[in-house]
């Protein structure tokens, strides 16, 4: 599928193209606010007490600094997840760190939680008017943190009053040692601290989601789900990018980082099925990874996902993808 300006966008290096997309989404959001268009209410679903107007969300990583939330809702997403946000601003890993694998309809990134810090992002969220869908805020730890559990607790505590849900991201492969937090007992400590931090001033608890890696083995998935249930996590996002490498055609195939896009689909699909079996209905599951159209989204929902999230496919399929999937499922 092609879309207007695709050729021009692909002439830019991927990170510059990403910044251009964020700028365009900011403008689109402003225009949408002027005409006050309505969100498509299509096959919505309720999770953790939240009403999602449709089953398609944008995954964290696209709008890292909460700059384009209205524009993303204007594209038809029922949920927008911003971040990953860390307590302190950090530049991320050296460039180049984002690679477009056009032949494979894939992306490799080793961004490293580059963001302006949670306070800058939340200042933008505070200024938003009425939201058209569900807003998630994805939080992580600074690369040089001496206490990563404290970083997560701080992030959850700051995000909870402004988010509809908060996601704990311990599954990025681009911060050394971060994925170790997916294993018990480290995950228990982190989730216990986050469970406390998400309590609001009125005593209610903001929904808390956990995002895991597709590279966990079955025992790892079992442990993550058990910890999530023990600490009252409201939903599990399956899954992040992979460090595995299926056969790829692009010259960038050997770059280090997390692989996303079409080649991730079989692994993400298999990991979802495994999580569905293990969770046995104990908590809702959200599927991410390689979802590039209606057919793949239907496969995930039929397999047991309550919602789907997309990101990399937008690079190749264009801004109409969200609404097409929402209407198709």
Overview of the structural elements:
It is a single chain. It contains 11 helices and 13 strands. It has helices spanning 6-11, 14-35, 69-74, 118-127, 148-159, 186-197, 218-230, 265-279, 294-303, 312-317, 321-328; strands at 45-47, 50-52, 56-58, 79-85, 98-101, 106-109, 134-139, 165-169, 208-212, 235-238, 258-261, 285-288, 307-310. The model has no long low-confidence stretch (mean pLDDT 94). The protein is 36% helix and 17% strand. α8 (265-279) packs parallel to α9. The two termini are 19 Å apart. The strands form 3 sheets. It has an 8-stranded parallel beta barrel with strand order 3-4-7-8-9-10-12-13, surrounded by 6 helices. A 3-stranded antiparallel beta sheet has the order 5-6-11, with no helix packed on it. The radius of gyration is 18 Å and the shape is globular. With 329 residues, it is an alpha/beta fold.
Give the SSE layout:
Elements: H1 6-11, H2 14-35, E1 45-47, E2 50-52, E3 56-58, H3 69-74, E4 79-85, E5 98-101, E6 106-109, H4 118-127, E7 134-139, H5 148-159, E8 165-169, H6 186-197, E9 208-212, H7 218-230, E10 235-238, E11 258-261, H8 265-279, E12 285-288, H9 294-303, E13 307-310, H10 312-317, H11 321-328
Parallel strand pairs: 3-4, 3-13, 4-7, 7-8, 8-9, 9-10, 10-12, 12-13
Antiparallel strand pairs: 1-2, 5-6, 6-11
What summary fits the major beta sheet? 8 strands, parallel, barrel
Instruction: Give the averaged pLDDT, no decimals.
Output: 94
Our estimate of the beta-strand percent is: 15-25%
> H/E order of the elements?
HHEEEHEEEHEHEHEHEEHEHEHH
Low-pLDDT runs of 5+ residues are none
Distance between the termini: 19 Å
> What shape does the CA trace take?
globular
| Oligomeric status | single chain
How many helix segments?
A: 11
Task: Please identify the structural class as seen in this structure.
Answer: alpha/beta
The main sheet orders its strands as 3-4-7-8-9-10-12-13
Proportion of residues in helical segments: 25-40%
Radius of gyration: 18 Å
Number of beta strands = 13
């Amino acid at each position: 599928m092609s879309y207007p300006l695709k050729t021009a966008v692909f002439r830019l290096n991927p990170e510059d193209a990403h910044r251009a997309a964020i700028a365009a989404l900011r403008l689109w959001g402003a225009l949408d606010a002027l005409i006050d268009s309505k969100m498509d209410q299509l096959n919505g679903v309720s999770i953790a007490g939240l009403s999602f107007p449709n089953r398609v969300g944008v995954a964290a990583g696209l709008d890292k600094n909460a700059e384009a939330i209205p524009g993303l809702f204007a594209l038809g997403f029922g949920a927008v997840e911003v971040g990953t946000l860390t307590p302190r601003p950090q530049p991320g890993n050296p460039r180049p760190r984002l690679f477009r694998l056009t032949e494979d309809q894939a992306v490799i990134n080793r961004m490293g939680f580059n963001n302006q810090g949670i306070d800058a992002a939340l200042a933008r969220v505070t200024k938003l008017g009425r939201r058209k869908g569900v807003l998630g805020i994805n939080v992580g730890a600074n690369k040089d943190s001496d206490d990563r559990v404290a970083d997560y607790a701080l992030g959850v505590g700051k995000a909870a009053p402004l988010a509809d849900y908060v996601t704990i991201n311990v599954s990025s492969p681009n911060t050394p040692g971060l994925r170790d937090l997916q294993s018990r007992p480290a995950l228990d400590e982190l989730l216990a601290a986050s469970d406390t931090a998400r309590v609001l001033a009125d005593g209610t608890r903001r929904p808390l989601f956990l995002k895991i890696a597709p590279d966990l083995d079955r025992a790892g998935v079992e442990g993550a789900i058990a910890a999530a249930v023990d600490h009252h996590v409201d939903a599990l996002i399956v899954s992040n990018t992979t460090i595995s490498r299926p056969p790829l055609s692009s010259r960038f195939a050997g770059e280090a980082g997390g692989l996303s896009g079409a080649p991730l689909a079989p692994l993400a699909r298999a990991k979802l099925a495994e999580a569905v079996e293990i969770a046995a209905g104990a908590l809702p599951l959200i599927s991410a990874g390689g979802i590039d159209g209606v057919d793949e989204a239907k496969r995930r929902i039929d397999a047991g996902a309550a919602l789907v999230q997309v990101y990399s496919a937008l690079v190749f399929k264009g801004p109409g993808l969200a609404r097409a999937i929402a209407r198709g499922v």
